[in-house]
Give the backbone structure.
Amino acid sequence: GAVVSQHPSRVICKSGTSVKIECRSLDFQATTMFWYRQFPKKSLMLMATSNEGSKATYEQGVEKDKFLINHASLTLSTLTVTSAHPEDSSFYICSAREEWGNSAYEQYFGPGTRLTVT
Amino acid sequence: EDKVVQSPLSLVVHEGDTVTLNCSYEVTNFRSLLWYKQEKKAPTFLFMLTSSGIEKKSGRLSSILDKKELFSILNITATQTGDSAVYLCALPLTTNAGGTSYGKLTFGQGTILTVHP
């Protein structure tokens, strides 16, 4: 099956600094990638849809200036958490969409990035 | 508004037991229903269901969809401790404009399954 990687897998940063997380589709091209965050024992919450070559679409309540998304190529999307604060500590997961047929599709998830802001 | 509800929220069983996890949904424009298993990291794909009444099977796991009653079940037979995980059900969202976005998934709350030896 398709593989999506994320880097780094774990990062600890100080409050006020910025952190960049990379999401790569390794063996397929992904025109669309998605960024989720997940709090402990909670389900995944979609933050934004990243479209190659255009601006990301953010979900309601997600600050676009705080969570900068760049989808510069068909295999790479980055999420930058700017001026991170302890409340940004979370598990961030990306996924990339592989599509076939007329109505079927599947998303492949990256392994996730655990961000801890001290 | 699209909605996905899973039950139970948590389940504790012993090895060898059979479990049934439920996912009910309300979506404006149904396309498919996906089941995922999540352990310590990101979710891994289990099944995609698009047609009613056709069982999908993979080893001890199976799933079926009922599009009339708007639900799906995930069965795990002869459970093992390695089955302990969060099981997530997800459906594609419909955009506000009324079109269909194949990419955006609405997740249910998940069912936390714990299998004791």
Q: What stands out?
A: Chain A has a mean pLDDT of 88. The two ends of chain A are 37 Å apart (CA to CA). DSSP finds no helices and eleven strands in chain A. Chain A touches chain B at residues 1, 6, 32, 34, 41-44, 46, 49, 93, 95, 97, 99, 103-112 (CB under 8 Å).
